[in-house]
Batch of 4 targets.
Target 1
Amino acid sequence: ISAVEALMRLRMRDGVEVPPQQFIPVAEKTGGIIQLGYWAIREACCKLLTNADLPLVSVNVSPVQLREPSFADEVGAILSEAGIRGDRLAFEITEGQRVEAKSVELHFICRLQALGIAIWLDDFGTGFAGLALLRLVDFDLVKIDRSFLYASSSRRGHMMLRNIVRLI
């Protein structure tokens, strides 16, 4: 195992599961994603502390979190409290997120990288921002969307996947 991904899930009191596509946008709109994100990072650090065999945990990060002025400082404090090095965490940014040159998000991404945290591009190929993001951010890893893997059984799909891998 080289890494595991922390995934946010919500189960209502009656046992009904709410998919992330439903509750994450609500959390982003209300600002609740900030506290949920800090909780997820703390939980990831706890898993790293309790399982020495886990080299790295990745956590999805919302653009709302990336715009929070104290986000990098808070993450640094969480790492310090847990006694975890930043190089044991990776933050995943989804390609669909809007990150522009000279944006506050780019500044905070650099601050997170200074903490040793790896920055990964998630779901590459699902949106229109992929190439621009590759130009703007020095990603440590690019996760190609699974739809390209599933389509790789056809000649065209195989060629497309091969070309994406060559590109990145």
Note: The chain has a mean pLDDT of 87.
Target 2
Amino acid sequence: TVAEFKARVLEFNPDIPQNNANFIFFTYDTVYKLVEAMKNAGTVEDTQAVAEALQDVVLDGVAGKLCWPEDDRVINYDTGHLFVRDGVVESLAFPGSC
């Protein structure tokens, strides 16, 4: 959840600058998506196998649902515009291609 994510970030650095917190919010889930792809591929060294496995991983993350469609080759979120200001998440959500 967003609240748990916020607590982990503030535990790491209670005085984290807002722009850094925003960046972390949008990249946090991709690490877990990559880990799942590596598990599914059964390797961390065969990057082609990991890349192929990425397109099959759909992850319900902190920022929404993530997928990597074959025709897009970029991780898509199921959310729209998100902004974290003073620990409050403001969002305008819309469905992605997941």
Note: The first helix runs from residue 2 to 12.
Target 3
Amino acid sequence: MKPFAWSYTALQDYETCPHAYAAKRVYKTVKDEMSPEGLWGNEVHKKLEQRLVHKTPLPADMPFEKWATVIERSIEPGDELKCEMQLALNREFKPTGWFAKDAWCRGIVDVMLIKENGATAYVYDWKTGKVKTDQTQLKLFVGILSRAYPDIERFITKFVWLKHNKVTPSQVEGDRFLKEWVPDIWREIYPRVKRMEEAYNAEVFPMKPNGLCGKYCPVITCPHNGRHGK
């Protein structure tokens, strides 16, 4: 097997069901075909990047101009806008290439606006699905960005739920992270990653029934799969 590496989505897959995670990401015995909703979500990310970077108008089926305008109007002279950033860290928590052999942790930041002479970063993550409350992904972005951009002192992070016309967290107190808090972020996330890596190294991936079993999991050989034996 390849050296262990992870991302937020990989961690989410593992914690949902280790068996399905292994089939899709480790042994690759099944191909996780992306749903129409997932494909549309990828296209939304692409079009929003083009809108912010190249001023390309959004298609008629993507009525999200409001959010592009909100970000655009907040840009002041000296600010720096970055979109769809592929970031990776090695085991020493040092930045490395996305495809580098020592890449250990990866994350894609949809939008980052660096303000106040590089001291503050506003981080936005586009979401096209159901509204959820878990902030792990935003915290991970802060952990990665703090290593890639060590001069940033504070991060303001937001999920933008495009289909629901909603932003979370809604209050400043819930989305502000200071640089000195980053060690606490890693202390919170790392034990989960460690459990995942230990399972990876031992090749122990038990089945875990969950809400995806009925008709969404591609591992039809699993007895918990709703399409098993059909």
Note: The two ends are 31 Å apart (CA to CA).
Target 4
Amino acid sequence: MKTKLNTKTIVAAVASVIGLAVYGYTSMVVYLAASATSTLPVVLTVAALVCLALRQFAGSKLPAVVNDVLLVAANICLIGSFAVFVLARVSLAADVYFIPVNYPASEATALHISIVGAVCYLVGIVTLIVEGFSAKN
């Protein structure tokens, strides 16, 4: 039995994976490599991806209420990941945009790459919100 692919779920999952990759890259490689890194965005994003995978591959076998709970849970996890990601980068934004004196170029690079990751998380969040309000099959 073939499973019908849900484009919104796939877009949200891909955007979340990209956001997670950017979070990991900026936390481990660039300017923030020496600072402490929270594992919460990683755990929350993986939980969201598990919820999305369950909806995608077992959604037709699950009751509608469970599908809705999985959608809400995935969105809450992505919102949490986004919030922790952005809050960890506030100091970068402050240094680069509000106190633009003698900051290293790698700090600006880390901020600009982080903005891309935050936008990817936002795309995933908005896509899941739209899916929640879309007509059901």
Note: The two ends are 17 Å apart (CA to CA).
